Structure formats: structure tokens, C-alpha cells
Amino acid sequence: MNSASEQRPSPGTPPGDGRCPVPGAKVAVVTDNAAALPSAWQAEFEASGVFASVELPVLIGGQLYTEDEADMLSSLVIALAEGRSVTTSRPAPGQLRKIYEAFQAAGFEAIVSVHLSAELSGTLGAARIARQDIGIPVRLVDTHSAALGQGLGVRAAVQAALAGQGIYDVAAAASAAASDAQVLIQVNSLETLRRGGRINPTSAMLGTMLQIKPLLSLHEGKIVTVERPVSAIKARGRFMTLVGDALAHSEASTPVLCIHHVSDPHGAREIGETLVDRYRPDAQLILSELPAVLSAHVGLGTKAAIVEGPTSRPIAHGNRAAPAES
Predict the structure, then answer these.
(1) What's the domain range around 215?
(2) By the 8 A CB rule, do 76 and 196 touch?
(3) Which helix (H) or strand (E) holds 51?
(4) How do residues 122-133 score in pLDDT, each as one tens digit?
(5) d(CA 8, CA 38)
(6) Do 231 and 159 share a domain, yes or no?
(7) Residue whose C-alpha is closest to residue 182's, from 213, 231, 144
């Protein structure tokens, strides 16, 4: 079993010395920290010189957090436990424009900007504004995903860029990898999703009254219900089965299994190691706290699994995401 310990992303910085740092690399890749990249991946991508990431701001009790992820997560957990107001926002277009301009100055011919589902965030809208007047093409990719589902798309884009592929192939690689990734979310309560406007208030109220512990996924970028177990024990059992089946039938040679959590690393490790041992001993296990910008909307007690695909046992059936925006 291959295992990576607790991971938290950090912001990337684009090159500024006027040279492409990788021979043959023509396309740069930009993303946002909702991709939940493992720190080892983030460091590797930053070292390549073709990659940068922008932080998504979180507002906790009236205080804006934009940079220190560890401090943000600690404050967020306390706020969620106390029921205080937590909101999120898209990045300022100027932040993305600065990154795009730096890559242009570094000699890149194009940029592929790979982001969190537009159904969940306005980040893609900020990127549309930011790319105006940039002197090289900036192609936007809506991954229709989040967390490491998005992150697998980012990894594919970086790999394609380092292989010297052009803007359309880099964008297509990102879209395909994100679309193939399987996402399953087990929430402890629907209340946080309701407060954030991510689910229907009536559905949230009924779910709470009936003690439903729904298993959620993403379809066309939207949060959808996969199953509605009526107890936490049944929800965990179905979570393990659905994720395990997807993992066992993944076509990736050494598939990634990522278990995200909100302030519960020991619980995440137990779930991840059980799934790998039971279903796919050759899988690469990654344990990762959800970024604050996502944790703010799902609440304490949440677990999420990301399985690298494609797989013949998809968790939630749906159409492949569109390759990219023009």
C-alpha cells in the first residue's frame, strides 16, 4: 500500500525571470486551492515552473482569511462548532491577472486555468475577467468537480504541459481526468449545506427530521444525492461499499484514493487503509483535510472520497464534462 500523510496546500508563485523554466513547455497551468493538492504534488508542480495556484478567501466571524491555510482551518473548526457565520468568496480577478501576466512575461505561449465547478463558486467568473487584455490565450476549464477530483485534473494538465502539449490538449487532459474521478461525500448534517445555499432548504429540513445521512456526489458540477441512508452506521457502510467498488474497478494502473476529512485525520486514515486493504492494495492512499473553502460548506464530521478513474463502477452516473470553455 502506498500512503501519503496529512496534506495541506500552499499558494504557488509563477516564474518572474522572463524565461520558460522547462525546455519545450509552452503552456502554463493555473488553479485554485479548492483542488486540495497534496503538498508533495504542489511542491513538485511549483518546482516545474509551469504552475501556480490562487487562494480562495474565507470569511469567519467577519474576519477575512486568504493565505494561512492552517490558521484558517483551525479558526474554521471552532466557528463551525460554535455555529458562527462562515462564508466564502471567489478570488479577486486582479489576483489571477497578476499570475497570468507573470506567465506571459516568463515567455509562455498560453495558459490553461483549471478551476472548481462553476456551480459551486464564482472563481471561473473571476478568471474570465482576469484574462481580459492578457496578451496570450488563456483557456478556462470548469472541472465540474472539487477537492482532489479537481486536483487530478490539475495533475493531468501539468503533466501534459510538461510533455510540451498545446493549449487544447492540456485543457482536454484536465477535463478528462477530473471527469473520470469519482467523488462521494458523507456529511454529518445537512444544515451547513443549507446555510450555504448548496441544497434545497426543504430537503435539508426533511433530511434532518427523518435522521437521513445522505451520501452526496457531483453531477455536472452540482451536488446530487446518491443514496439516503437513515442512520450514520448505514451511511458509513454504503460509503465504504460504493467507494470500494469504484476503487476495485478503476482502470488506472496505480489508482489514487484520497480520503478528505474535516478535522478528523485518524478517522480518515482508518477509512482509507480499510478500503485499500480490502479492495485495492496497490492504490496510492492520500489523506487530506478539506481546504477551508470547502469545509465551510459541508461542516464538521464530513468525509469525502476521491477515486481516480475511469472505473466500470462509477459512484454517480453522468455525462462527461465539456472539455473547456473558449
Answers:
(1) 180-307
(2) no
(3) strand 51-54
(4) 999 999 999 999
(5) 6
(6) no
(7) 144
* Domain at 200, CATH number: 3.30.1180.10
CA angle 49, 47, 17 (to 5 degrees): 40
State the chain's maximal CA–CA distance in angstroms.
60
Euclidean distance between CA atoms 179 and 168, whole angstroms: 16
For residues 270 and 293, give the distance between their C-alpha atoms in angstroms, rounded to a whole number.
24
- The grid coordinates listed for 71 are 490558521
d(CA 55, CA 11): 6
Q: How many CA atoms lie within 13 A of 133 on its CB side?
A: 7
Backbone angles phi, psi at 30, to 5 degrees: -125, 145
Q: For residues 140 and 134, what is the distance between their CA atoms, to the nearest angstrom?
A: 13
pLDDT exceeds 80 at position 141: yes
Give the DSSP per-residue string, 81-133. Answer: HHT--EEE-PPPHHHHHHHHHHHHHTT-SEEEEEES-TTT-SHHHHHHHHTTT
The predicted model gives 18-23 an average pLDDT of 57
Query: Taking the alpha carbons of 312, 265, 152, 3 in that order, is the dihedral positive or negative?
Result: negative
Q: Phi and psi dihedrals of 184, rounded to 5?
A: -135, 130
d(CA 317, CA 326): 26
Q: Is residue 314 part of a domain?
A: no
**258-269: per-residue pLDDT in tens?**
999 988 999 999
pTM equals: 0.86
> What is the SS3 assignment for 65?
strand
